Amino acid sequence: MPQTLVIKIGTSSLTNPSTGYLALSTIAALVETLSQLRQLGHSVILVSSGAVGVGCARLGMTERPRTIALKQAVAAVGQGRLMRVYDDFFTSLQQPIAQVLLTRTDLVQRSRYLNAYGTFQELLRLGVIPIVNENDTVAVDELKFGDNDTLSALVASLVEADWLFLLTDVDRLYSADPRSNPDAQPISLVQSIEQLESLQVQVGDRGSRWGTGGMVTKITAARIATGAGVRTVITEGRSPQNLLKIVQGEPIGTHFEPQPQAASARKRWIAHGLLPAGKLYLDDGAVKVICQSGKSLLAAGIVEVEGEFQSQDAVQLCDRNGREIARGLVNYTSIELQRIRGCRSEAIPSILGYAAPETVVHRDNLVLSGQPSPNSPSLRVMVEEPDLPL
């Protein structure tokens, strides 16, 4: 049965870790595998890192760029070279490809989000393999995806994929880093992200010398993708031929089971496509009603307003301790909410002097976050300070 597959490969798999030069044998194996998947009738999207790493190698740089301007310049050098290599390999197998460069703005604005969806659908209908990367050359820091693991999960959610494969430098998720801890235990199946907390899994947030990620970003990506109903697999990037075996049912890598009831496309856009412009802190009663019943948020339940935002901006809904419980589109500006927070709905028109919506965030525009507490000690990070992103 034809399926839609999103494959993300990281810089650590695409390049030689000591030199930063492209690992051509890995790329050749990846291209051959993806072409075979296309021949089997599957729709395939590749999310590829490596532009900055390739640019560094091309320019003879021995250190990662540390300023945004230099990083963007190096990405401009590397992106063209990376696509040239992909095009040469795919052309030899008669497989057409397309370059798709995205910024966070493409997913923040609803019209551009829908346009991106339409573009992907047409490319897949034409039998093309889209090769996706963040548009590092123009993306500003506050509107960046942060890493391609997150980007791949958002793309998988956008196109309603069946599979998301995160190819990395280890063969699966372990209870600790197997490269430094001989007692690390492999994890083959994760039924929910909360399971990792109960297992006391330690995940590092440091990527390779040339990469940006680590296992933390892959766990985040798995949370996004599985919430959209996408089965997610972490497996070794140096063995891309395993993708065929996994699709055929072999238990390779770590599988994250999709949630049985995926959120609608609109709610996935609210939850992951938008960047919150502010926070609303709620009393215990409002938190209980939203978390247990999924009801709309009323002004009476708001105890504090943080940030400056306009009506229809995205906001985080938090409990008194600052733990995010939900996100949603707000019906009021921050200035209006400062005046009506804690008030009953029937009193709002007299306070503001004009008719206003009964709800602050309507339940149709509200998505439960399902995030663990930021103070939870169970999901520990082995490296205190992450690498600067490439």
UniProtKB/TrEMBL annotation:
Question: What are the PUA domain coordinates in residue numbering?
Answer: 278-361
- What reaction does this catalyse? L-glutamate + ATP = L-glutamyl 5-phosphate + ADP
Give this protein's Gene Ontology molecular function annotations: glutamate 5-kinase activity
Q: Check the record and name the InterPro entries matching this protein.
A: AceGlu_kinase-like_sf (IPR036393), Asp/Glu/Uridylate_kinase (IPR001048), G5K_ProB (IPR041739), Glu/AcGlu_kinase (IPR001057), Glu_5kinase (IPR011529), Glu_5kinase/COase_Synthase (IPR005715), Glutamate_5-kinase_CS (IPR019797), PUA (IPR002478)
Could you say which residues bind ATP here?
K8, T168, D169, T212, G213, G214, M215, V216, T217, K218
PANTHER family from the entry? GLUTAMATE 5-KINASE (PTHR43654)
Recorded protein name is Glutamate 5-kinase
Q: What is the lineage of its organism?
A: Bacteria, Bacillati, Cyanobacteriota, Cyanophyceae, Leptolyngbyales
